[in-house]
Amino acid sequence: NRVPSKGLALFSKDGNFEPYEFSRHAIGDNDILIDILYSGICHSDIHAGRSEWGNTSYPFVGGHEIAGRVAQTGKNVTKFKVGDYAGIGCIINSCGQCDNCKQGLEQFCEKGMVGTYGSHDHFHDNEITQGGYANNYVVSENHAIKIPQNADMKRVAPLLCAGITTYSPIHFSKVKKDDNVAVAGFGGLGHMAVQYLVALGAKVTVFDITEEKRADAKQLGAVKYVNVNNREELKGLENQFSFIISTIPAKYDPMMYVRMLKMGGEMAIVGLPANENVPSISIGSLVFASHRKVYGSLIGGIPETQEMLDYSVANNIYPEVEVINADGESVTNAYKKVIDGKVKFRYVIDMKTLK
Ligand code: NDP
Ligand code: ZN
Q1: Whose CA is nearest to atom 46 of ligand 1?
Q2: What interface predicted TM-score (ipTM) does this complex get?
């Protein structure tokens, strides 16, 4: 019994969002059905929706920052009961058996994790997954995140991607109190990174390309804001930071930031620009880079996502959100505004308003 679903889809890479009815695989014994309350708009949705990372399959329903309520449970489900709040991030299934899955690193499942949208679901006849700009979702209970009843639901949704993607490398690099650190790209992901780093007691410098966000950076506890379009502000920043996270979704020079690391410092790259804009790092520059380290990071596994969510809710760390209605025009318009740098800091679609 497939589950009927309706949402908002793009039908081509330069089209507009329109209503779309489709179906999801049946609720298996280990699955839950979630009625979606809120869905965040991540810049990854935009890269994918516009085929900026290669050809996307259309119709395309984006959304991997999903917060909702459990509506139905399969007969073996123990983690959730009907009525509980539940979240879905970027991973909806993985083998659970390989070394990486056993370590809670489902994003690196050796059999291939199934992504929330645009992914071949090899547990269900390879059907292509559709995301959370929709009224519901069917997910295996092991890949759904428990959301505490006291959480602010509209602000919880973006934690499921923007939250975990920044929380994970900050902890992987063991950032601690008084460390001098930086966040490059101060948008949906970046403003979460600032909050996690400030909560750890680190001294945070923010890099972005606009004057408009200078006051916001201060307000979130950053000690310094650098407008990278202002050459003067970039002077004297070499050898400063023990950790830098780059969330930049556009073309830039990563070595500029590598040079700002102290010897042995670490730079985590999470921003993934469109294929035509992906920056490269010369290995020559790295060989002469004084043991500074550069690594990429992909979201986070399920156990760490649960840890991040519990930590964020308990410490009142949430994104700043702008809630929009679930109609094609509003979502199409929101995409335009993210691309134009006109969002502070995350759009969240109120899926209850879907007609
Ligand atoms: P946003 O658009 O919300 O934020 C990006 C920010 O970077 C904006 O403030 C933007 O400014 C700023 N920016 C753009 N160009 C530069 C530049 N040259 N120097 C400094 N800042 C710049 O995007 P998200 O935070 O949602 O996503 C960021 C990136 O991370 C995307 O590429 C996304 O695909 C990727 N991502 C990766 C994940 C992973 O697992 N690795 C998971 C989730 C997302 P302005 O707004 O003015 O343009
Ligand atoms: Zn995302």
Answers
A1: 341
A2: 0.99
